[in-house]
Amino acid sequence: MQSTDRNLLALLMPEGLLEYFQIQEVDQVENQLHIYLDELNTAPAGYENSRLASKGFMPSTEISDFPIRGQKVILHIRRRRWTVLDTGQMITSD
């Protein structure tokens, strides 16, 4: 996705969302706009100094957002999960 497209979408997205998520894809299907976001690979608060291994994503969550130009907007959000290598504990961000 080009930076100008990303900047434009950032203006339309909920405030602060793109600090934690990256836009992967945008699809327009009939009168719906589907925006797919993946959580950035940034250590959760409190685990910045831990050895973590990213273990992919949790199942996608769909959130309906405010319509844009008469189109229903659906955000498809995938949150990341990590394993703490020293303890084997599985963690996610809040």
What features would you highlight for this structure?
3-stranded antiparallel beta sheet; 1 helix; 94 residues; mainly beta; 7 strands; 4-stranded mixed beta sheet; elongated
Describe this structure in words.
This protein is mostly beta strands and 94 residues long. The protein has one domain. Helices cover 11% and strands 50% of the residues. The chain is built from one helix and seven strands. The strands form two sheets. A four-stranded mixed sheet has the order 1-2-5-4, with no helix packed on it. β1 and β2 form a beta hairpin. The mean pLDDT is 89.
Structure summary:
With 94 residues, the protein is mainly beta. The protein is built from 1 helix and 7 strands.
Number of helices, where a helix is a run of at least 4 consecutive DSSP H or I residues? 1
Overall pLDDT confidence: 89
Q: How many β-strands, per DSSP?
A: 7
Structural class: mainly beta
Q: SSE order in H/E notation?
A: HEEEEEEE
- Rg on CA atoms, Å: 15 Å
Helix content: 10-25%
Weakly predicted, low-confidence segments: none
Which secondary structure elements does this structure contain, and how are they paired or packed?
Layout: H1 3-12, E1 21-29, E2 32-39, E3 52-57, E4 61-68, E5 71-78, E6 80-84, E7 90-92
Parallel strand pairs: 2-5
Antiparallel strand pairs: 1-2, 3-6, 4-5, 6-7
